[in-house]
Specification:
By secondary structure, this protein is α/β, with parallel strands linked by helices. It has 16 helices and 13 strands. The strands form four sheets. Strands 5-2-1-6-7-8 form a six-stranded parallel β-sheet.
Length: 386
């Protein structure tokens, strides 16, 4: 278990009212980097406690993956007495993270306008589906539905297949990242102005933001992007290719890398062939080039070839399972698997800071009913009163 130290956000207090994925992921990022995060759940708990199997002590792995470095208490915000408890917590907080449907907090007298008057330094971060207004304003949003609506499914899948959902909740996760980024931007601005502000990260916006390079291609050409399977729409060879054993993924981004690839495969003439000599030509003639490469690789071991190529300077990789990726020696070296007391294992923080690295202090389900005492030199400014 990593030993505690003063993280980059030490002294910052966060009330996390959010459930499911985007908001909790934001809260976990802030907690990993030292913020004191108190997760407030409804009486029945976060919905993801039931999203399994697998389960441990009746709680699903899904919940465990998003809620470490938080302490948990339960409040029924429909009850005035519990709203008073929340207001007392917000008086000591720097950040509120929530993903209530538009109008719910307002109905309880906890909307941004009300809270900002009472706690002018409070940063109020909302994760929403579509934002509060506009043609779709206030409607609920879900990862897969946004993948469909934002065009992501239309460009994912085999070229001759149907639109396909990306196999992980990419929209929810990037929304959580955007929420965390927004909180950090607001904290930086508060250091100058002394005032908090409203931060919103919408799933719809985040889904659209993922459309590079397809959006850029459409803006320039007017042609609707189509599915290309594992192949990149703009560059080639940037695709899975077959070998005698397992397929490998080639990620050749420039002419130099392509020349090294051809030399290693003992087909240097391909690099001078006018059909393949430039990036644009390779992209246009990708089907013929893939056939040439796979014919040369048909007698080669995939994993050995991938290792040889990457060592030679050609970006590529074997296609690994989740289990193989999590057990890879470099995963351990990068500290991307975290182990804590009680048998918890989870993914590590991907952002590495040299002086204030992420720490892992609370396993999911840690109990707590108030903020930890501030340490000397850790005054985050607080939500405060007027």
């Amino acid at each position: 278990m990593t030993q505690p130290n003063a993280g980059a956000l030490a002294g910052i207090r966060v009330v996390d009212l959010s459930r499911i994925l985007g908001g909790p992921y934001c809260g976990q990022i802030l907690g990993d980097h030292g913020a004191d995060v108190l997760k407030i759940e409804p009486p029945q708990g976060d919905d993801t406690r039931t999203w399994g199997p697998p389960f441990k002590d009746g709680v699903a792995s899904y919940y465990f993956g998003l809620n470490r470095n938080k302490r948990v208490m339960r409040l029924d915000l429909a009850a005035e007495s519990d709203r008073e408890v929340l207001l007392a917590l917000l008086a000591e907080a720097d950040v509120l993270v929530e993903n209530f449907k538009t109008g719910t907090l307002e109905k309880w007298g906890l909307g941004y306008e009300t809270l900002s008057e009472r706690f002018p330094r409070l940063i109020h971060c909302r994760v929403s589906g579509f934002g509060a207004d506009g043609p779709l304003g206030g409607l609920p949003g879900y990862d897969a539905a946004i993948q469909a609506m934002a065009g992501i499914m239309s460009i994912n899948g085999e070229a001759d297949g149907d639109p396909l959902r990306v196999g992980l909740p990419v929209v929810d996760m990037v929304t959580g990242l955007n929420a965390a980024l927004g909180v950090l931007l607001a904290l930086q601005e508060r250091a100058r102005s002394g005032r908090g502000q409203f931060v919103e990260a919408a799933l719809y916006d985040s889904g659209l933001s993922l459309l590079h390079p397809h959006a850029a291609n459409w803006f320039m050409s007017g042609k609707t992007p189509t599915r290309t399977g594992n192949a990149h729409p703009n560059i080639y060879p940037y695709d899975t290719v077959a070998t005698a054993t397992d397929p490998i993924f080639l990620a050749v981004g420039n002419d130099r890398q392509f020349r090294i690839l051809c030399g290693h495969l003992d087909v240097p003439a391909l690099a001078d062939d006018e059909r393949y000599a430039t990036a644009g030509a390779r992209s246009v003639n990708r089907a013929a080039l893939k056939a040439e490469l796979e014919a040369r690789m048909a007698g080669l071991d995939g994993k050995a070839l991938a290792d040889e190529l990457v060592q030679a300077g050609v970006p590529c990789a074997p296609v690994l399972s989740v289990a193989d990726a999590l057990q890879h020696p470099h995963t351990a070296h990068r500290e991307m698997v975290v182990e804590m007391e009680g048998g918890y294992r989870g993914l590590g923080a991907p952002v590495k800071l040299s002086r204030t690295p992420a720490t892992y202090r609370h396993a999911p389900l840690a109990e707590g009913d108030a903020f930890l005492p501030r340490q000397a030199g850790e005054d985050g400014g607080g939500g405060g009163g007027r």
